[in-house]
Amino acid sequence: MKIYRESIRLHKNIKGKLELKPRVDIKNNLDLSLVYTPGVAGPCKLIAEKPDRVYDLTSKANTIMVVSDGSRVLGLGNIGELAVLPVLEGKAVIFKLFADINAIPISLNVKEPDEIINTITAIAPSFSGVNLEDIEKPKCFIIESELQKKLDIPVFHDDQHGTAIAVLAALLNSLKIIGKKISDIRIVILGAGAAGISVAKYAYTAGCKNIIVCDSKGIIHQGRSDLDPQKKEILRITNREGLEGGFENALKGADVVIGLSTIPNLLKPAHIKLMGKTPVVFALTNPIPEITPIKAKKAGAKIVATGRSDFPNQINNSLVFPGIFRGALDVRASQINMEMKMAAVKALSSSVPENALSEEFIIPSMMDKNIVFRIACEVAKTAVQTGVARLRKTPKYSFD
Amino acid sequence: MKIYRESIRLHKNIKGKLELKPRVDIKNNLDLSLVYTPGVAGPCKLIAEKPDRVYDLTSKANTIMVVSDGSRVLGLGNIGELAVLPVLEGKAVIFKLFADINAIPISLNVKEPDEIINTITAIAPSFSGVNLEDIEKPKCFIIESELQKKLDIPVFHDDQHGTAIAVLAALLNSLKIIGKKISDIRIVILGAGAAGISVAKYAYTAGCKNIIVCDSKGIIHQGRSDLDPQKKEILRITNREGLEGGFENALKGADVVIGLSTIPNLLKPAHIKLMGKTPVVFALTNPIPEITPIKAKKAGAKIVATGRSDFPNQINNSLVFPGIFRGALDVRASQINMEMKMAAVKALSSSVPENALSEEFIIPSMMDKNIVFRIACEVAKTAVQTGVARLRKTPKYSFD
Question: Which terminus of chain A faces fewer neighbouring Cβ atoms within 10 Å, N or C?
């Protein structure tokens, strides 16, 4: 694909998307003796006496790790710890440019959940947050929850939460347009990976009572003997009617379909026609969605979103992770709890003013730099309110 | 101390000496799609097919870790993994400003050698080198040698080698001035820590046959029952006469004394007077040396060096580590072998031209930015010659 070739060319030209820049200069021996030995013993001793001073005297307060074992990279699968590096570096570029956070790429050549947990725990001291990235399920779930128990800094698996927060924000805005309540609708989710499972949980938390998740074998229901623990668990909050069969069965009369299947062109016009009135179609597989917006609209979809920047309504986790971490770091949160995640949903959805909302504008653009600070502001406030912030004062964020 | 207070003030003002800077900008959706998804899948796929391309397409080629468990920080001892951070960041500042290397501070809250080795191995994929820092002995020795066996990137414990290389370079130049041969002299080393042990090994490798190492109990000799394995091992190349007693006994008639004791003012004028003709005194404990240059000179020392920038002849490992890693990274060396270390000694000592050599100028200034590239040049060449370089061509270094 052309965009792959162009990206390779860009990466070859710059030879590494990141570099570490000093915030001090060394012009003479005095500078050297303050930045390094012997003067540096001063800050070292102070931190040894009062560990909290590490936040004033080092880069820790504004540094997180973006960490992966390369086991589930984009739609490319288990391509390993070297091949995931361009993703980790790309994410670090976004963290810095959008939220002024130092995000260090850490790539792991251990693959067992225990080893991953131990390694991340061992290197945690210089970081104030952990962004887990591109780790396959089910281990991504275990790693996130075990790490969060062990560490007193936020642990956030972006492939689950970043995506789900962006989807839910876009969904809430779509419902405003079509005049439906989340408690009344049926949502069909295509794909039971980390993102699909997570979107189901978030939609449930937001009040949806009728969610059907489908995997490659069709609807996930109690009668299936081939379900892994995560799929079994998700049945506690989905498919209460006990629907069976292919995903087409779920689509009959559905209000919303959310494609996270990684299967290009999975949805045909006939599928959209099975849905209820004013169908909402999120076809989020990249780079080729489950159905193109043109086809979906032609088949009757009222609102269509994709993961792509060349169509309206791009749903992308890049809208979420910079602001979430900015807010969490600013109040030294020990975790990013569900309340903070839901605050991010609200901040993101409300950043499109009601009078600007339209079928082609249900979610703001990545290029709107206000979004980060709107999200950060709500996340920081909620962290303080829910008692997981070490600082009680939220910074003053400025945005339009 | 004043310099501690000044350093604390500097650290408070800048709030972290480091930040991660993108080398690309994101101005629009196209930029975003090349730096991150979906375009970034291009470089990812290419690396998955040809792992060596990771060096062209990511920051790995120019990134190392500066890693410590905080168990032996400066002269402050085991102050822990938070308190060591200002040192690691200071070192990273020097790596970048002097050698354009990205050095990521990694601080460990595991303390057992096995855990440290496993952790560093697990996070190695995104790095091209490991600078071990401020780790107490004896584990520093085990960790370095075991890690170098496991990893195909250089592992370098700077407290051993950086110091020893700078000391040996200064010593060779001192001998030129006083007209003695290294094979004829007696060297007394005060301190049997990582640096002291390492200086003894380097002096032996350079041809010295009469080395006496002393610890807090006096001369290290065969008759002592309190020696740890490292001290026992160093006896194979030191104290062949079987000298016993306090360090004063060793100083009688000695040509060179090298203070690495961490004990301020350990050496009295009377000690210097015990030495042979034209005594060479390296009093390297920081910030207060074993003896001040003025006192040492008054007691008869011909040449005096310290670790301090406010006296002539500052011996500092900062002269060494930037150039060593620059050279190793430039040819993608898999290790920094003894030949490369000795090439660094030669490059450093010869960077003071013979006609400029004097009692007050045995080693160049840290502020001479040529040093890095002189060392890098010799280290890279030697890596190629000794077969540990993955690239066969050394870059063209420019220096005066």
Answer: C
